[in-house]
Backbone:
């Protein structure tokens, strides 16, 4: 039933051929990819988050390519050489065909190691390196240093930012059907439908919604955070050079979801300050009519939300380290 | 399990499956007009609908919130629910339980109606139910496909619109929901019901009434989800997120109730399959002799029974929110929209494996037949499917990485999600190992299986990209993920379904599918599937969100390319339907008894399969798939050959 000798020699023969082709193809493929494609992979390099997300994508791709090539080369080889017309060998059967411990164990070891490496790498990138620009909810796991201070100051109306100050700039993103607006607590809490950001600055996006779930996707910034009513979903990014970007809603929010987009720009620090102070002044009359700046604006079961929370300025949705004890009773 | 003593009577005893006694015929089986069939089901369904609607209005018309809205969700819900009950009663699915309830015993339900009309009746024969499912599934796939064509037509141009945004989003939602509901049953329903008993050497499913009931619930579920269209559709996509769900119009009721109804059918079907596989295996069919397809159905059945109740409950919560103004998902009143997201995806991720495992099973089942060699690493394939099934309960929040729901848990869900690719990889080990030094026969079913391996690889690898949180930021909620899941569901499951149909239709109908037309179908479907969906990865990376009616003008080229490929892909299904009609009715070609020279049990009985399946319950003698092994014992022993119409069972 088993024909051990032809089996083992045959195996070496076939697999070695495939391995050679595979190694060459993978090396060439990865080199071509990293030269010609990798630098252009979305979301680009407008911010540090975006650049790091891009790097992660590229590393994943460079690992995926050999996997794809491996299977493709094997399949092509098999289909070409082992079709019943071409393959005149005796049919492969017996115990050797049914299982082969060496193959099985090495397959499991290789896939497990790869997968564990990927998970480890992803976790490192997410937790240690850069927080990925994703929405992290009201109590972010990854925070740039100084963010808690900046966010607290924003809520108390005491946030400051000026060119060269290196302060974190909190920006609130408010989703509603079917429009994003932006509030700048650092500049009197004015609300604008334009999103401008200063270059070389860490931004803390505080994303919330007035109605259904939206998702704030600032594509070139490498930022995506769901906008939930009653939730302050925080996402960080650090801008680099000036440039423009597009914001799209990426969570279905009703019939005009497709039309929920706008353009934004990273400006030089002075241009930004100029725009912000001018707009603050021009909007002052409107800002006075807005609800006080708060993390959320939809009342909760206790009637508490944002600035409407009984103690005036603080809300249960603030960073819990600071305000955790002030939950409504 | 070994050959058990309790079964010995069944093995050697006379056929006991079809006693012809002359008790009163049940209503479902009376000939002629005095019977229950599809027509009565429709009539009863409509009557139930009207009664429910009246009753709902009667109950609730005075409520002020209804008076102001012009809509009455209570009436809609009750109308649909009563309609479903009417439908089930009309087909006769409730006769037996009610008879029992009122102490009437001995309703005879064996089928005396033996003409074409048996396919339009409540039937306890798993082969009839299987064929009913084939037609049901194809019909609904066709409908979902038409909606897909509508989507791709709208996306031909970013600025000129065929549909209003309102109609468009409802088309997308309906397409997705119909397809997902259909896909839960596409293999378990038709091929699972038909072939599991045959492959394990049983005469029937464990619970024939539950089996029939699950089919008629499935059809009812489809009508409920269709009813969304006349109600004005629902705008939430197939994921139905609240608060949009709470805000939506009456079409939402169809979605919620539709999932509850379909969910009920899924639970019943899964339960039935699990019990059948565990208890009805022929003597000698130990767990290491169970065909891989049966393993895959068992793993799927576990998911169906354990995951679907969560969807069922979630749907009912939503219905309560919409009808009697509870606040499960309403943040302002103490509920949480995150609750729906959690419940939905706690079901939703096992659901995606409900839509993958049966495909793996078909691949594993067909490969040895067309490679003419044993399956490589049989145990690993079973372990892989069980591993996938188990792990699939621990990954659901990978759909919520950017939702802000729980940032600390992201590394965990990234890990579990990536771990799942290990047991999924087993399937590739098994597949590639089986191709090793094989004698591959490029028959139609084999082509579809090979295509599955090609497509699912792309679907799986892109899944790893999605599970990496930093990459997820860019690809979540866009066309990248859209393409990813079409690669796994359509590229995997649907190709497997086609493989299964081409492979088993000769057994089910006694007629061969035409090879030439089949090849045209395969190549069109394979090439244009890839040309339709591969560009969507790039479209997604370039920033196009899902479910939008307009997009950046620089993406029009890629979108048009995808749309035109999609039309040809749609055409390939017409080729398939043509082949079906051509091969079954226009120019039927009688199928040989065992066209693929398979060793599977299902090919060892007569065609058409007698209602009792096997003259004698076979005794399983050895492992499956011992192709081209000289001196291997026959897979099964059917006892003495002199029995009338006992099938010949030559083993290669
Ligand atoms: C001819 C074949 C098909 C084509 C051309 C097609 C095309 C599409 C397109 C373009 C969308 C996205 C619309 C959007 O989000 O902007 C979509 C959504 C979807 N499709 Fe398909 N599809 C096909 C078959 C299938 C099949 C077989 C399934 C599953 C069994 C399926 C399941 C879905 C689901 C679940 C959605 C998501 C709907 C949502 O966003 O809620 N599709 N399809
Ligand atoms: Cu939106
Ligand atoms: Cu999932």
Residues:
């Amino acid at each position: 039933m088993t024909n051990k000798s032809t089996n083992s020699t045959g195996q070496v023969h076939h697999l070695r051929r495939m391995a050679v082709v595979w190694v060459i193809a993978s090396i060439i493929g990865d080199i071509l990819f990293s030269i010609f494609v990798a630098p252009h992979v979305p979301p680009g390099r407008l911010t540090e988050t975006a650049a790091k997300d891009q790097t992660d994508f590229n590393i994943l791709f460079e690992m995926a390519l050999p996997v794809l090539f491996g299977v493709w080369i094997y399949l092509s080889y098999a289909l070409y050489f082992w079709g019943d017309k071409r393959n005149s060998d005796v049919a492969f059967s017996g115990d050797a065909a049914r299982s082969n411990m060496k193959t099985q164990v090495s397959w499991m070891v290789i896939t497990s190691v790869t997968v564990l490496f990927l998970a480890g790498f992803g976790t490192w990138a997410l937790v240690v390196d850069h927080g990925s620009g994703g929405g992290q909810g009201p109590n972010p796991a990854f925070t740039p240093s100084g963010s808690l201070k900046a966010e607290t100051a924003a809520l108390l109306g005491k946030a400051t930012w000026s060119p060269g100050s290196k302060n974190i700039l909190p920006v609130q993103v408010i989703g509603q059907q079917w429009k994003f607006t932006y509030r700048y607590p650092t500049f009197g809490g004015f609300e604008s439908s334009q999103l401008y950001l200063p270059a070389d600055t860490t931004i803390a996006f505080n994303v919330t919604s007035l109605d259904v779930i939206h998702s704030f996707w600032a594509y070139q910034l490498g930022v995506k955070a769901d906008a939930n009513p009653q939730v302050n979903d925080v996402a960080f990014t650090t801008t680099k050079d000036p440039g423009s970007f597009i914001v799209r809603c990426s969570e279905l929010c009703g019939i005009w979801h497709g039309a929920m987009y706008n353009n934004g720009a990273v400006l030089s620090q002075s241009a930004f300050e100029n725009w912000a102070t001018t707009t603050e002044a021009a909007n002052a009359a409107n800002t006075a009519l807005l609800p006080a700046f708060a993390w959320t604006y939809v009342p909760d079961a206790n009637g508490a939300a944002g600035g409407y929370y009984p103690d005036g300025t603080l809300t249960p949705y603030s960073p819990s380290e600071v305000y955790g004890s002030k939950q409504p009773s | 399990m070994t050959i058990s003593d309790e079964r010995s009577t069944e093995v050697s005893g006379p056929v006991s499956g079809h006693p012809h006694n002359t008790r009163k015929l049940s209503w479902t089986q009376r000939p002629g007009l005095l019977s229950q069939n599809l027509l009565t089901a429709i009539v009863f369904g409509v009557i139930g609908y009207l009664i429910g609607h009246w009753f709902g209005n009667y109950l609730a018309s005075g409520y002020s919130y209804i008076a102001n809205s012009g809509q009455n969700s209570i009436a809609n819900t009750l109308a649909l629910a009563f309609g479903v009950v009417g439908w089930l009663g009309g087909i006769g699915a409730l006769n037996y339980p009610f008879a029992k309830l009122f102490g009437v015993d001995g309703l005879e339900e064996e089928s005396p109606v033996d003409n074409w009309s048996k396919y339009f009746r409540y039937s306890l024969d798993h082969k009839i139910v299987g064929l009913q499912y084939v037609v049901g599934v194809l019909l609904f796939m066709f409908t979902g496909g038409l909606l897909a064509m509508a989507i791709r037509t709208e996306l031909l141009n970013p600025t000129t619109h065929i549909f209003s945004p309102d109609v468009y989003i409802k088309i997308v939602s309906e397409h997705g929901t119909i397809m997902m509901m259909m896909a839960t049953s596409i293999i378990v329903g038709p091929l699972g019901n038909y072939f599991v008993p045959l492959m394990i050497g049983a005469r029937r499913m464990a619970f024939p009434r539950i089996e029939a009931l699950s089919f008629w619930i499935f059809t009812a579920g489809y009508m409920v989800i269709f009813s969304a269209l006349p109600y004005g559709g629902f705008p939430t996509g197939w994921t139905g997120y609240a608060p949009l769900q709470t805000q939506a119009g009456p079409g939402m009721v169809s979605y919620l109730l539709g999932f509850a109804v379909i969910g009920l059918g899924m639970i019943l079907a899964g339960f039935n399959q699990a019990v059948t596989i565990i208890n009805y295996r022929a003597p000698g069919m130990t767990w290491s002799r169970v065909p891989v397809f049966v393993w895959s159905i068992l793993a799927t059945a576990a998911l169906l029974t354990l995951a679907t109740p969560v969807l069922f409950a979630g749907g009912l919560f939503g219905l309560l929110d919409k009808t009697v103004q509870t606040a499960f998902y309403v943040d302002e009143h103490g509920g949480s929209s995150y609750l729906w997201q959690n419940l939905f995806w706690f079901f939703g991720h096992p659901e995606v494996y409900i839509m993958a495992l049966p495909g793996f099973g078909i691949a594993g089942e067909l490969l040895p037949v067309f490679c003419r060699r044993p399956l490589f690493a049989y145990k690993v394939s079973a372990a892989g499917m069980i591993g996938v099934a188990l792990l699939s309960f621990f990954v659901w929040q990978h759909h919520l990485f950017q939702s802000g729901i729980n940032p600390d848990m992201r590394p965990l869900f990234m890990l579990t999600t990536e771990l799942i690719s290990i047991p999924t990889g087993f399937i590739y080990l098994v597949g590639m190992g089986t191709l090793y030094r094989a004698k591959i026969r490029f028959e139609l079913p084999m082509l579809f299986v090979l295509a599955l391996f090609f497509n699912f690889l792309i679907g799986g690898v892109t899944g790893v990209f999605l599970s990496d949180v930093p990459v997820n930021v860019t690809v979540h909620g866009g066309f990248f993920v859209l393409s990813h899941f079409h690669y796994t569901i359509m590229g995997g499951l649907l190709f497997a379904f086609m493989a299964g149909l081409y492979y088993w239709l000769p057994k089910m109908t006694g007629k061969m599918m035409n090879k030439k037309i089949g090849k045209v179908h395969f190549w069109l479907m394979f090439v244009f599937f890839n040309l339709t969906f591969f560009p969507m990865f790039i479209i997604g990376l370039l920033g196009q969100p899902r479910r939008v009616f307009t997009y950046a003008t620089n993406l029009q080229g890629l979108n048009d390319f995808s749309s035109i490929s999609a039309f040809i892909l749609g055409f390939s299904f017409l080729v398939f339907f043509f082949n079906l009609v051509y091969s079954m009715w226009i120019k039927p070609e009688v199928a040989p008894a065992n066209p693929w020279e398979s060793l599977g049990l299902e090919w060892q009985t007569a065609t058409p399969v007698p209602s009792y399946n096997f003259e004698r319950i076979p005794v399983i003698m050895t492992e499956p798939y011992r192709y081209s092994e000289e001196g291997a014992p026959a897979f099964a022993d059917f006892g003495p050959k002199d029995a009338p119409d006992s099938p010949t069972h030559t083993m290669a």
